[in-house]
Amino acid sequence: METINDKNLNEIEILVDKLNEKKFRAKQIYKQIHNNKINDFFEMTDIPLNLREKLSLEYCFSRVKKIHEYDSKLDGTKKYLFELNDGNVIETVFMPYKKRNTLCISTQVGCAMGCKFCASTKNGFIRNLTSSELIEQTYEIERINGDISNIVIMGIGEPFYNYDNLVKYIKIITDKNGRNLSHRSITVSTSGIVEKIYEMANENLDVNLAVSLHFSNDELRRKYMPIGKKYSIEEIVEACDYYFKNTGRRVSYEYMIISGVNDTDKDAFNLHKLFFGKNILINLITLNPIKEFKNYKSDLISTNNFANKLTKLGLNVSIRKSMGKDINASCGQLRNKYEEKNGI
Questions:
Q1: Which of 91, 133, 140, 254 is catalytic?
Q2: Residue 75 and residue 91: Cα distance in Å, rounded?
Q3: Distance (Å, rounded) from C-alpha 137 to C-alpha 91?
Q4: Contact status, residue 287 vs residue 298, Cβ threshold 8 Å
Q5: Tens of pLDDT along 75-131?
Q6: Does residue 191 contact residue 115 with C-beta atoms inside 8 Å?
Q7: Per-residue pLDDT tens for 316-330?
Q8: pLDDT score for 127
Q9: Which residues contact 204 (CB under 8 A, 6 or more apart)?
Q10: Active-site residue among 104, 111, 240, 331?
């Protein structure tokens, strides 16, 4: 059965016309889905019962079922395991801040990128999430926690390997006729799929772009991130420069500190050579340890030391606050544990 919550207003107007209903009904349906976050036709009480019945025979909503909620006692972060219609499990994180509520969503079931330090990829890639599932993932969090103000697409998966569904999701979630979330409150994270960075730059979406760089030279990046064998750092930076030129949105480069591996003086000078004079942000992250990467570590001291090195070289640096440490809120950890426990 065809999903309806990932259709734009024009598409719903077409389906309403095919059902021999008046055009204004499309706006009512669209508002119920995206303003009221209704995912059951029979709860759309301002629509005639016979239309609700016709819709229910031909269209449906992708469902996400909450199977676990983990609440952080440190900062209020909430992590959810959601089960999809086919039984697959995804992770979603809700992060409350003083002035905003931020949602981190997954775009794939599993991940194919193979980064050695990341839990998301350890059980491999299953499939892409549909645009309908991306929307429902978002609205289910809002049904539970109230409206969110920011979305970071940094959960499990490589968003640009689910490009079409990603773009459709962003267009729906930012549509002024519906949810009307600001483009600039959305951040898409990628490991550096160069051709898709260029393509996204031409979409006229103007969302924020974050690149998981993590290393200052290609040799190290190839060692720990297989995607480094396909795209060089220079190619990624050139694509990101184009993105900034086309959208005006500053690109942030995610850089996870691995003590003694990528936080040397040489790394600092490499980053200076790459970025000095550019309107970018280097976002430093302390390593979240996983058992497969247990011999590597970092801490806030080493992260601060590297931040000081970069700052002295004139680079724009921030340190990402780690949220939900007590509930394993980093990508993939809970999903992996759940699948191990349940023999999935």
A1: 91
A2: 18
A3: 9
A4: yes
A5: 899 999 999 999 999 999 999 998 899 999 999 999 999 998 888 887 899 999 999
A6: yes
A7: 999 998 776 666 655
A8: 97
A9: none
A10: 331
**Contact criterion met (CB below 8 Å) for 155 and 80:** no
Over the stretch 196-210, which tens digit does the pLDDT of each residue have? Answer: 999 999 999 999 999
Between CA 179 and CA 267 the distance in angstroms is: 43
Is residue 91 among the annotated active site residues?
yes
Question: 265-275 and 233-247 helices cross at what angle (nearest 10)?
Answer: 40
DSSP string covering 264-280, please? SHHHHHHHHHHHTTSSE
| pLDDT surpassing 90 at residue 190 | yes
Return d(Cα 128, Cα 159) in angstroms, integer: 9
Given a contact cutoff of 8 angstroms between Cβ atoms, the answer to whether 73 and 326 are in contact is: yes
| CB 284 within 8 Å of CB 306 | yes
259, 298 contact by CB (below 8 A) = yes
Angle, CA of 204, 208 and 214, to the nearest 5°: 135
Average pLDDT score, the chain: 93
The answer to whether residue 115 is catalytic is: no
Alpha helices by DSSP H, the chain:
9-18, 24-34, 49-58, 131-145, 163-173, 194-201, 218-224, 233-247, 265-275, 300-312, 333-342
Give residue 338's pLDDT band: very low, low, confident or very high (50, 70, 90): very low
